[in-house]
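User: Structure tokens for both sequences below?

Assistant:
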Amino acid sequence: MPVFTKTLESAQLKSDAQQMASVLRMARQEAITSSQQKDVVFYPYYAKYKLGSKYYYLSSGTQFVGETNFDKKALKPTCSFLPSGALNGTLGGTVTLRNNQSMKYIIVDMAGRVRVSDEQSK
């Protein structure tokens, strides 16, 4: 049974990272198409984040590592996309997710491109 649990935890972490990357990409696309800034706000202590009025929750066992390194807006870490698709006021940022087995890094560069990695950006 432990092998099954490790496999399930690994799949959940990967799914959480891919979903977060997808939400970040969606925010970027919405900023471009609406010509308005779009924010993804992170709530690390509650294992959730939101775009607009919709909240997204991490799977049980997946958690944020730290608070992300995006700028804070109203005291909350926030990834803000400008209508150009670039990030607002930052050189990029990283969200780190972990479970008992491993870590995933969701990396957004200053141009607004989003990727998921098994290794921390240098």
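Moving on to the next sequence.
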Amino acid sequence: MAVVKHFITESVKKTEIDEFLQEKLERAGYGGVSISKTPLGTHIVIYAMRPGLVIGRGGETIRELATTLEEKFKVSNPQISVSEIEIPELNAYVVASRVASALQRGIHFRRAGFWALNQVTDAGALGAEIIISGKLRTERARFEKFRAGYLPKCGDAALKYVRKAEAHIQLKPGIFGIRVKIMPPDAKFPDKIQIAEAPPLEEEKTEETAEVSSVEEEPEEASEEKEETKKDADTTS
């Protein structure tokens, strides 16, 4: 049970760090974090659309983040590096924050959902799903789902490749929730088999002609040897 408790506490700590960074780096276009432990300390990679806002002037912001993570979350010797998001439309955090900001500006939830879904599919995603929940049109809370493409719900591909993110905003009717799932274009599925192409036929033909020529040369050499032995026998007689 001690091992199970250790992994649970580590997962809870990672979730708390993720939520803290999402609130702190909202203006920088926060896109997730990866945490890995090394012999020298804890290596933290922050993904953002605008890395300059994460680093700050002269590295001031990133030093503040390092001290906060070490004091508040008990992270041992945090070493923070910032990575820029290459395609923001394929990042679930960015898409969820864009839908949330659109709802805050007063855009209709259906328009915001379909707009974000079209952006994700145009970027090359294999599948996407956006769920907006809350008091959408009436006093009773409900949810609306926007889906496109191929998005498995279970199995190894769903656990390994699907990118997930959630965002919450406070509006006049109440709290709205946005959940985003994206299947990236580089995902590999076990049911999709690639058949290897056959080698070109020219190489096989050249090999066959070489074998035929070698077989033809062998009887000619044998006949020449027989003629030489006959001549030797005639001279001796």
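User: Anything stand out in the second?

Assistant: The radius of gyration is 33 Å.
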